[in-house]
Design goal:
heterodimer, A: 5 helices, 29 strands, 14% helix, 39% strand, globular, B: 4 strands, 61% helix, disordered N terminus
Amino acid sequence: MRSPALCRALAALLVAAPLAAQDTTSRGVRIGLTYDPGSKPGVVVLPVSGARGDSVRAIIQRDFDYGDRVNPIVLDGSVALEAARSAGPNWPLLARLGAAAAVQVTPTPTGFHLAVYNVATRQTALVRDYASTGAADSRAWRATLHRIADELEESFTGVRGIAGTRVLFERGRRIWVVDSDGEGATPVSDAGTPVSPAWHPNGRMITYATYRPAGISVLDLASGRARTLVSGQGVYISPIFTPDGSSVIYAHGVENGVDLYTASLSGGGGRRLSVGRGSDNVSPSFSPDGRRIAFMSGRAGHPEIYTMDADGTNVDLLTPLAFGENAYRASPDWSPDGRLVAFQSMIAGNFQVLTINLRDRSLKQLTSDGRNEDPSWAPDGRHITFVSNRTGTRQLWVLDIESGRTRQLTRGAAVRLPAWSPRLRAE
Amino acid sequence: MIRRTAVLSLALLSMTGLGACRRRVVPAAAPAASGADAQRQADSLAALRAQQRADSIAAAEAAARAAAASDQRSAGELASVLTQRVYFDYDRDDLRDDARAVLDAKVPILLANPGVTVEITGHTDERGTAEYNLALGQRRAAQVKRYLTAKGVPDSRLSAQSLGDSQPAAEGTDESAYQQNRRAEFQPSGGGALVRPRS
């Protein structure tokens, strides 16, 4: 920590630099900050004026932190205060703090005004206005700030952030959704027996299975209206949308094992894809190109992960056959970049989350603390959410597979079966 | 049903028997009676008859009550046989010997009560994944249904549904809890009071 004396000294350096704000950048332009290769660019989020200013700043800083691609340089109180009083960025101070950029978000009557300063060039790199109709602290209001953070991350690193994404999960006989920063957890389905929620590629619809009555439902998030896509005798499990969003692939069985089927949203349906010959075949996950499906099958006598073509042909065993008490692999989720499949495997009496590389089939164990299961990839291909009982109850956690950082996403009553959303368009 | 019919006929028989006695008694008391005597005799006879009739009705009712209670008890026993659970090994759906014995006891009752339908639900312990457990529970329920239909219970009277690991019979994370949770349950409905199979 910096000493108060140093803080005062730093504050004294805050000299208002003349600013010529220019509307020189347009959407999608890379700012091209200079920073050490392999390290994260440091970004100072300048103090925000207004009643909810501290919240605005905290949300954007936290989004950068949770995104793991940008290093938010958090100033302590006195430096922040001086920075807020100054009429513009204090370039020497920002450079000393190791910042590649400074971000200034200003609430306006219609939303937010954003300015980004490039510390190396001492220039305004980006100016943009964001409309937000939501009241302060509403979901729409927070969603706008997440969008600002995600677009900033994209301009700093080339990869759009995931702050504006959401995660579905099951809790207490309902499907819930929570923002990627853990805020705003709320039920979206009626009470019943819903399991295994999954997102439509457009982020506006979800599908889930119910076991009593047994069927597959599709729910429109905006209206909250659900309809039954297929139902009947037996069991319906683990639906997912096809990448083109036109159909649902799900597991279904009555008396002769459980197989994967496909049903069209427009009505046609019930075509069988897998040939399990009495075994259980559940938990499908599409490759990003939509050509292959990873799924769990008990056809070898115990659960393992397999892949097949989208039409059900060319089945391959993906995970190396395990034996004995560790012979239980399940819940595959194909990474958005197509390189890895995350899954859960029994290891020494507990489930752990692993990835398998599609190219060389190398395995990497990602968890070891408690029981960890149901992995689901974030759209950035770098973060995974999963269920862990490491603190006693089953909660969702988020892991950055590059740095190994984990954080707890949900709190409260036990949850399971998370599904991370695709990137969501502004509402 | 059979038992109840038997009880009713017993009650009827005893009433006819009493009627026969009455016919024998009345002519013996009738001769050489004066008008007043005859009237008294007739009154007491009427009272006697009324008493006898009331007694016989009470006796028949008591017998019917006893029979009904016994029916109820036996119907309860039959229902408990029908709802007795069967248990499975970890990640298995094949029927163990103890499960077959439990199912074998259900078969004659189901055959003797053709109006009864049974919902079979398959359950698992919590160790697998939620999705695989729903599939495993379905396999268990289907295996039980297959066994019962093979023994002659019509397919149309049995349904098989999985509830996966959603409704544990026992809380806990040890093998004894897990064993109680790896099960099939039976919910009979319809068909009125259960009757005992003819032995």
